[in-house]
């Protein structure tokens, strides 16, 4: 296997990281993700947030930035900066966990459909087409309303409704790989189908899966923010989408309390932008049509 087809081993990871950093799009995306990761992982340790804690007097309700509240307070007198840091962690956590589910389901369906073809391929692709045709957001809203406002439910709903595009991409690549000479050669040496999939097919499609996975994270974060904004988020876990929801229902937008709704809005914008830039840059590196350009 050539260096450009290397899987995400330590050597392969360093190779792709260097290529990403040399690409302006990838470099900006990595910088944005490093900043948002610091905000989501490190900052909540030093600025913890307790959703049950409220302000002790009316003067602390929806106040602007001050020495006490660097980013102002909300309608309950809670510190917005602490909410922002905590919300970053929840938004990123939901996005990544939902993406893991989506990637496992989509990659599995795509590989098996593309490798075995025939009836299994037809059956799996009809299921995939169904989920591609059905509008995902209304279905997420319906399932979220049915199963409750729980962070686990939100992750499962988003994850199990975000896999069709991954399945299609992986299937297409697997169909191409199945025509390569190494497949019949491996069979002639006694390799089983599962062994061929594990040792020959999967390593070749892995860079494509990773590139698509990075882009899926952005979509899952947006889906969580949308569900939370319309009131279907977990009220016990403050995410950026939940902050936007409460800023809207509390009238903060109408009252010009910009410190309440702008930070989570820009947070969602930047984290989605970061994953999108890195995803497209990674795709450019791993796509054979662009390798001569990178």
Automatic annotation (TrEMBL):
Mind listing the UniProt keywords for this protein, alphabetically? Cell membrane, Membrane, Transmembrane, Transmembrane helix, Transport
Q: What residue ranges are annotated as transmembrane?
A: 28-47, 90-118, 130-163, 208-230, 266-282
Supply the PROSITE patterns for this chain: ABC_TM1
The organism that produces this protein has a lineage beginning with:
unclassified sequences, metagenomes, ecological metagenomes
Organism, scientific name: freshwater metagenome
**Bilayer topology:** Multi-pass membrane protein
Protein name, as recorded: Unannotated protein
List, alphabetically, the InterPro entries matched: BP-dependent_transpt_permease, MetI-like, MetI-like_sf, OppC_N
Pfam families from the UniProt entry: BPD_transp_1 (PF00528), OppC_N (PF12911)
The reply to whether Transport figures as a keyword in the UniProt entry is yes
The residue ranges of the ABC transmembrane type-1 domain are 88-279
Report the record's Gene Ontology biological process terms.
transmembrane transport
In terms of one coarse class, where is the protein primarily found?
Answer: membrane
């Amino acid at each position: 296997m050539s260096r450009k087809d290397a899987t995400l081993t330590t050597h392969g990871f360093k190779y792709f990281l260097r290529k990403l950093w040399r690409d302006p799009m990838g470099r900006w995306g990595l910088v944005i993700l490093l900043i948002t990761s610091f905000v989501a992982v490190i900052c909540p340790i030093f600025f913890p947030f307790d959703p049950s804690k409220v302000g002790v007097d009316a003067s602390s309700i929806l106040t602007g930035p001050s020495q006490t509240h660097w980013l102002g307070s909300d309608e309950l007198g809670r510190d917005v900066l602490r909410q922002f840091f905590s919300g970053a962690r929840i938004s990123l956590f939901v996005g990544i966990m939902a993406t893991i589910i989506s990637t496992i389901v989509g990659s599995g369906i795509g590989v098996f459909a593309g490798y075995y073809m025939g009836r299994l391929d037809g059956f799996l692709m009809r299921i995939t087409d169904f989920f591609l045709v059905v509008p995902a957001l209304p279905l997420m809203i319906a399932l979220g309303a049915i199963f409750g406002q729980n962070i686990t439910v939100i992750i499962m709903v988003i994850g199990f409704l975000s896999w069709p595009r991954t399945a299609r991409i992986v299937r297409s690549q697997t169909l191409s790989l199945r025509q390569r000479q190494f497949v019949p050669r491996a069979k002639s040496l006694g390799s089983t189908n599962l062994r061929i999939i594990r040792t020959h097919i999967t390593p070749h499609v892995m860079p494509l899966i990773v590139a698509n996975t990075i882009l899926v994270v952005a979509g899952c974060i947006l889906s969580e923010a949308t569900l939370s904004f319309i009131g279907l988020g977990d009220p016990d876990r403050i995410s950026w989408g939940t902050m936007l929801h409460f800023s809207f229902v509390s009238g903060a937008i109408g009252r010009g309390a910009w410190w309440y709704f702008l930070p989570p809005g820009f947070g969602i914008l930047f984290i989605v932008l970061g994953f999108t830039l890195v995803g497209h840059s990674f795709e450019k590196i791993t796509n054979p049509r662009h390798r001569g350009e990178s």
